[in-house]
């Protein structure tokens, strides 16, 4: 049972719906960004409006532990054999500066010049990654625990000290490979728990080969925008093993070490191959100019951007966004419409407390500013091969991908019952209800029910009072429907329970909070 080491330190994080989330990557040189003046790397939150002090992180650098000389360290696996496999292009350590305003015809960036593109990204679906196979045992290994069991034991021992072990890993990495530091955000606060969470996610998916392969391939493709190269994997693996040996002394030994080496080599191969294949089809990132910025409430903005190259996606998916004010810090936002003929993309963003990117997008971004977008991701999409009803539950800005799904059904012209439950804390937070009610008036197969947690007396006459999961149960059963959930992780968890209790089989419930649910124990393998 292979476990990725290291998994994407940027993957995961909470999203409002999949509407907002977390992730980081390599940044342009200080001073290269516009919309706020030169900005050197700094600790969050530096600007006065974020309430920070601008102090830089001071992590004591550990001394590298002597490593056994007989152990073969993790090697960067070669690209898959067979037909000439595309190689990951030699991307720069830091992406080039973003322009203040994109020209009418944007010249290709350095990385794009080395990436032949047979079609715009998404014109054909990316090939699925082959199922991950358990790494073979070393010669002579005929008894004792298998690799998966050895890896689980290591993680069980390290879990109580996961924060310290992860901090040690990053400090060791930056001491031994200082050139890799610029690929990470200035502040490492949000990084510390992601490594261990991603390890746990992979371990708990280890019995689901297809899901694990998809998870790892997504990490490999996502790493491209950070400037990650195949040559980086051995250094990262060596430091990971050093941290594991330091913080799991009871379970660590030659046999366990070899299990981790085999797992890491297998996992990195999946990620490298996925990145190489993706490089044949798409740029690592897109520049996107803000063309519209509409404040719906004091905390929520509807932002529309124009990407500099064709950007194909599916309704219900999300992407990662980087702003010029917080280099190397990426957050996830769902597309708030189905693909448009004019190529514009719209996002619903809520400024959350201490939210670096969300606060900048809501309070600082203006038309003309340039953002960066990662590739589209997510599997909460419409299955147009079936006529099953769709039960769509969106909380807060999680209504954005739900609206996109409804528009997708409209555009395909195939009527099917669609029931939407739109939840918010108060009627004031139902910022997109007018649009949803207009869609309901135009299409008889669509029903929209707003739900507010505040006491009765909502300004909307048809609003239901109470919690969103309770309202879903009240109007069930829903056994003839496919479920779609979008919102904060807590709402997703309670929503899954409500849908299952209302008759929707778990395998017909779609959302994009897989890692969060696995880690909370809400989803188990099989």
How would you describe this structure to a colleague?
It catalyses: 2 nitric oxide + NADH + 2 O2 = 2 nitrate + NAD(+) + H(+); 2 nitric oxide + NADPH + 2 O2 = 2 nitrate + NADP(+) + H(+). Residues 125-139 have a biased composition (Low complexity). Its cofactor is FAD; heme b. GO terms for molecular function: 2 iron, 2 sulfur cluster binding; heme binding; nitric oxide dioxygenase NAD(P)H activity; oxygen binding. Residues 283-383 form the FAD-binding FR-type domain. The chain has 526 residues and is an alpha/beta fold. Among the domains are: 147-280, Globins (Globin-like), CATH 1.10.490; 286-377, Beta Barrel (Elongation Factor Tu (Ef-tu), domain 3); 389-518, 3-Layer(aba) Sandwich (Rossmann fold), CATH 3.40.50. Helices cover 30% and strands 14% of the residues. It is built from 13 helices and 13 strands. It has helices spanning 110-113, 147-158, 162-176, 194-204, 209-222, 232-247, 254-279, 356-363, 399-412, 433-442, 468-474, 489-501, 514-520, and strands at 23-24, 286-295, 300-307, 318-322, 329-334, 345-350, 370-373, 389-395, 418-424, 446-452, 464-465, 481-486, 509-510. Strands 1-5-4-7-2-3-6 form a seven-stranded antiparallel beta sheet, covered by helices on one side. Helix 2 crosses helix 7 (254-279). The longest helix is centred in the middle third of the chain and has 26 residues, at 254-279. The chain is globular and about 65 Å long. It starts with 22 loop residues before the first strand and ends in a 6-residue tail after the last helix. The relative contact order is 0.16. The model is unreliable at 1-129, 134-143 and 515-526 (pLDDT under 50).
């Amino acid at each position: 049972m292979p476990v990725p080491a290291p998994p994407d330190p940027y993957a995961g994080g909470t999203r409002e719906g999949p509407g907002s989330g977390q992730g980081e990557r390599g940044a342009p040189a200080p001073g290269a960004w516009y919309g706020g003046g030169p900005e050197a790397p700094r600790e969050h939150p530096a600007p006065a409006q974020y309430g920070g002090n601008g102090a830089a992180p001071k992590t004591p650098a550990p001394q590298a532990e002597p490593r056994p000389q007989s152990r073969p360290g993790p090697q960067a696996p070669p690209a898959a054999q067979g037909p000439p496999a595309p190689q990951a292009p030699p991307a720069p350590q830091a992406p080039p500066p973003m322009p203040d305003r994109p020209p009418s015809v944007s010249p290709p960036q350095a990385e794009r010049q080395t990436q032949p593109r047979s079609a715009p990204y998404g014109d054909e679906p990316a090939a699925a990654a082959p199922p991950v196979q358990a790494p073979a045992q070393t010669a002579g290994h005929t008894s004792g625990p298998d690799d998966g069991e050895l890896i689980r034991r290591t993680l069980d021992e390290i879990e109580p000290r996961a924060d310290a072990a992860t901090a040690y890993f990053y400090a060791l990495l930056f001491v031994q490979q200082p050139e890799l530091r610029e690929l990470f955000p200035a502040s490492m606060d949000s990084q510390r728990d992601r490594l261990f969470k991603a390890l746990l996610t992979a371990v708990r998916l280890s019995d689901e080969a297809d899901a694990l392969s998809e998870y790892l391939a997504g990490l490999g493709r996502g790493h491209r925008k950070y400037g990650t190269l195949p040559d980086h994997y051995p250094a990262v693996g060596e430091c990971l093993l050093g941290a594991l040996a330091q913080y799991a002394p009871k379970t660590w030994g030659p046999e366990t070490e070899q299990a981790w080496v085999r797992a890491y080599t297998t996992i990195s191969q999946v990620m490298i191959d996925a990145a190489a294949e993706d490089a044949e089809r798409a740029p690592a990132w897109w520049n996107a100019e803000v063309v519209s910025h509409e404040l719906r409430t004091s905390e929520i903005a509807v932002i529309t951007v124009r990407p500099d190259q064709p950007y194909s996606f599916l309704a219900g998916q999300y992407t990662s966004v980087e702003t010029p004010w917080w280099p190397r810090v990426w957050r996830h936002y769902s597309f708030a419409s189905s693909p448009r003929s004019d190529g514009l993309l719209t996002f619903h963003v809520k400024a959350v407390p201490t939210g670096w990117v969300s606060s900048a997008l809501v309070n600082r971004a203006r038309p003309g500013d340039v953002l960066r977008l990662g590739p589209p991701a997510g599997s909460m999409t419409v299955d147009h091969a079936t006529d099953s009803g769709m039960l769509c539950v969106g909380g807060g800005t999680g209504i954005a991908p739900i609206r996109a799904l409804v528009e997708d059904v409209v555009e395909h012209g195939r009527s099917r019952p669609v029931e939407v439950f739109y939840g918010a804390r108060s009627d004031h937070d139902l910022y997109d209800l007018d649009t949803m009610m207009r869609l309901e008036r135009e299409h008889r197969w669509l029903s929209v029910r707003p739900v507010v947690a505040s006491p009765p007396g909502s300004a909307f006459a048809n609003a239901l009072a109470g919690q969103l999961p309770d309202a879903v149960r009240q109007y069930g059963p829903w056994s003839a429907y496919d479920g779609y959930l979008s919102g904060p992780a807590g709402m997703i968890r309670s929503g899954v329970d409500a849908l299952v209790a209302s008759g929707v089989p778990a395998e017909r419930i779609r959302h994009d909070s897989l890692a969060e649910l696995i880690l909370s124990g809400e989803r188990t393998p099989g």
